[in-house]
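Box 3.1. Reading complex inputs
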Amino acid sequence: MGEAFTLLGFGPEGWGHALLTAGLTTLAVSACAFACGLVLGTLCAWAKIAGPAALRRAADIYGVVLRGIPDLLVIYLFYFGGRQIVTAIANQFGHTGPVEISGFVAGSLAIGLISGAAQAEVLRGAFHAIPSGTLEAARVTGMRRWTMFRRIIAPQALRTALPGLGNQWQSVIKESALVSVTGLVETLRAVSVAANSTELPFLFFLAGGAIYLAITTVSGLVFRIAEWRAMRGQPAMRVGG
Amino acid sequence: MDLAFIAAVFPKLLAGLPLTLSLAVLSLSGGAILALLLSGLRASSWLGAQFANFYVYIFRGTPLLIQIFLIYYGLAQFPALRHSLLWPLLREPYVCAVLALMLNDAAYTSEILRGGLRAVSSGAIEAAKVAGMSRPTMLRRIVLPLAFRQALPAYGAEVTSMVKATSLASVVTLMEVTGLARAEVSQSYRAIEVFLCAAVIYLVLVTLITRLVHWLEDRLSTHRSPALDRSPA
């Protein structure tokens, strides 16, 4: 037991620093991926609600395709496929041999793309929950479209979307573990390395699990508080129970 | 795109489909049984409910990949286990993958089941009691069928997500569709073509399952549609 504490601690023998850095990398990848997903999701939600027919169709296809492919394959496509494309381009310019690309960038983009499909649905649902009277009132007062989006639509839709976006954030954290296949030293990769070199796999994978659990639990609480704050002054309305 | 290459890759990847399907079917059936047990436990006592909640919290709060690693690599840390009768089984990547997928699926399915059970109206239960049904009969004839119908859309999503999750088994050396695709890429270096072929296989599979679930939803809600005469009662 004491040995376990030494190994997980911050002393010279301990892996504490490595695991802490790795945990922060997990957070960073997740944040980038979530942001990508939010941008993509907003664009797709707009395309589905008010976009021209061609864009609406494209957004629908994107949603169906991304929901039908394993996350791991999407990451492989971005990482190995991206490397293939970059290498081909570099070879055109006289470079020889394969070119490495960043696992962080490929992983964030891949998970962002996966999450974007789900976030689009959350945001679209939230938009449709806005009472049409508010939108009419905004239009009657002569608001321009961008002002209306900024002052009326976004604040109301985000409030309704908060629980759904919170769920998406939790999924993104868990999906970020898959980025370890690119060699990026995030939590899962770090505990794998530690498990190998100490020959204590159970201890370190358990510690890795605890890190993820800590991140998901704390961010769950943050979202709960945000929801509570956003719902102040509203009649009690439970979204999604 | 090189069509001849793609035509050659497809059959190679399809060879992994039986393994993908067997992983999905086994872990979904095991997961469903475990989820029912968890629901029973939750209804049995306060302590049981606490355990079920804790189980769901742990398995939904951590990535599936770390659960697979914990079982596949982690268990080897215990000499007692390595020398036990179970070891020939627990050494197998297939067994470990199914075990992890099953335990993970149980957590999600038990939450879906909970939602379905909550939606069974108290009127239906009262009616069953008044008719003199015993508890097991009521569970079998009234509560579970109603809960199942209510939970079907969410459960359909869980089935497709498990089918997709089987791709993680490739990380512990199993040669299902994704594993074969990885092997093919390391030989041909044509990542985009190969992984896109694999993606098409999963997409078709998931689309078929989604259709099937929709069809089942329609079948199980005939009382809501005028097309009752389709099935002679």
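In summary: Chain B touches chain A through 40 residues (CB under 8 Å).
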